[in-house]
Design goal:
The chain is extended and about 55 Å long. The protein contains 2 helices and 8 strands; from the N terminus they run ββββββββαα. It has a 4-stranded antiparallel sheet with strand order 1-2-3-4, with no helix packed on it. It is α+β, with helices and mostly antiparallel strands. A hairpin with an 8-residue loop joins β1 and β2.
């Protein structure tokens, strides 16, 4: 389960500078760095790892919370998570943060690891010039360099 580098014993790579504290090849976490956070969710001084797991990209998207190597909770997400942050939303003691998860057109708020609130983001109209450029890319009428230049000009 664990292997040690130069700090503690044998390793597969003799010159590695990394220490593997935990290795689990079947953890099956698929995420982006923007979907990972650490926070003291229980006010006990112990940080928990909060992960917006992408699942397969179409199914099994979940919000997972780990304490050490043990999963504390798992909540199903309807759409792909794009960001996870923690924040303090009240002044009650102990100061325990809430978790916000951006997923699809929503921002889900979890308090005490339970669904608390859902914000719906307003729809934005797509820039018609940008839409035309992307349609031309889909039809292989524009090369990547031209695409880059055109998108930068819209900015």
């Amino acid at each position: 389960m664990a292997s040690a580098g130069p700090l503690g014993g044998e390793s597969g790579e003799a010159n590695t500078k990394w220490l593997d504290a935990h290795y689990d090849p079947v953890a099956n976490l698929y995420t982006f760095s923007s979907c990972v956070a650490l926070a003291d969710l229980h006010g006990d001084g112990e940080n928990t790892l909060i992960v917006g797991d992408l699942g397969t990209g179409q199914h099994n998207m979940k919000l997972k919370v780990y304490k050490g190597t043990t999963m504390l909770s798992e909540n199903t997400l309807i759409d792909l998570p794009t960001g996870v942050v923690t924040f303090l939303m009240d002044t009650s003691e102990p100061r325990t943060p809430a978790v916000a998860v951006a997923s699809g057109p929503y921002v889900y708020i979890y308090k005490n690891l339970r669904p608390y609130f859902k914000f719906t983001l307003p729809l934005l109209e797509v820039n018609s010039l940008e839409q035309d450029v992307w349609n031309q890319v889909k039809e292989d009428k524009i090369d990547p360099l031209t695409l880059k230049e055109m998108l930068e000009s819209f900015r």
